[in-house]
Amino acid sequence: DTEVTQTPKHLVMGMTNKKSLKCEQHMGHRAMYWYKQKAKKPPELMFVYSYEKLSINESVPSRFSPECPNSSLLNLHLHALQPEDSALYLCASSLAGGRFFADTQYFGPGTRLTVL
Amino acid sequence: EDQVTQSPEALRLQEGESSSLNCSYTVSGLRGLFWYRQDPGKGPEFLFTLYSAGEEKEKERLKATLTKKESFLHITAPKPEDSATYLCAVQAKETSGSRLTFGEGTQLTVNP
Q1: 8 Å CB contact of B43 and A41
Q2: What does residue A105 show for φ and ψ, rounded to 5 degrees?
Q3: S-S: B17 plus which of A91, B12, B13, B46, CB 3.0-4.6 Å?
Q4: Which long-range contacts (CB under 8 A, 24 or more apart) does A53-61 make?
């Protein structure tokens, strides 16, 4: 089974709200990722957690705060977002974070975020 | 800098009309090349990983091939349900972690 689950499927929030996106996988993968995808564009990497430690932050604004409580869960905390942050947010996981070999990433269905 | 270019940007086929999508890449040292399929509003669905030139992989009506400069995704006798955006991505040997460089995608439409 190569399933990554994400909740919620849709989220509408105001610029002053605080919300969280959740991602879960039970494949024993030790690397988890957050991507942002705008319409008709490829996914853009935001964060990478490898063995539950933040290994990559692609200069993402601090209004996005990732958290990895354990090897199966990944959260993205949102605060004071802007309308231009509206996008599809994708979670992905891979076996070992690409340290030694090409590491296939499996994506979740995404959360459609709208910021009013 | 790693680069991936996909062509064409969009492709319209009639059901049963076979064709190929192209993914050209420039990377310092290829660790892997990945093909994904993405339906509107959904996450990318993994199709293939290719590791070295000369490698080929098949799944139903799809066949992916790899050379030192490009990859092709061949679609044989496509059906309307094959309509989607196909994304190509590369992972370089010198990249940090599993960072992928994506192409812009090819939007495939198969008409019945």
Answers
A1: no
A2: -95, 135
A3: B13
A4: A55/A97, A55/B96, A55/B97, A56/B96, A56/B97, A56/B99
Q: How far is A9 from chain B (nearest CA, A)?
A: 10
Write out chain A residues lying below 8 Å of B103, CB-based. 42
pLDDT in tens, A5-40: 999 999 999 998 999 999 999 999 999 999 999 999
Q: What is the pLDDT of residues A48-80, one digit of tens each?
A: 999 999 999 999 999 999 999 999 999 999 999
CA atoms of B91 and B87, how far apart (whole Å): 13
**Interface contact A103-B87, CB threshold 8 A:** no
CA dist., res. B91 & res. A7, Å (int): 28
* Residues in B touching A32 (Cβ below 8 Å): none
Give residue B40's identity as a one-letter amino acid code: P
Least Cα distance to A93 among A105, A101, A102 occurs for A105
Q: Which amino acid is at B8?
A: P
The residues that bridge with A93 in the sheet, in sequence order, are A32, A106
State which amino acid sits at residue A4: V
Contact B46 A104 (CB under 8 A): yes
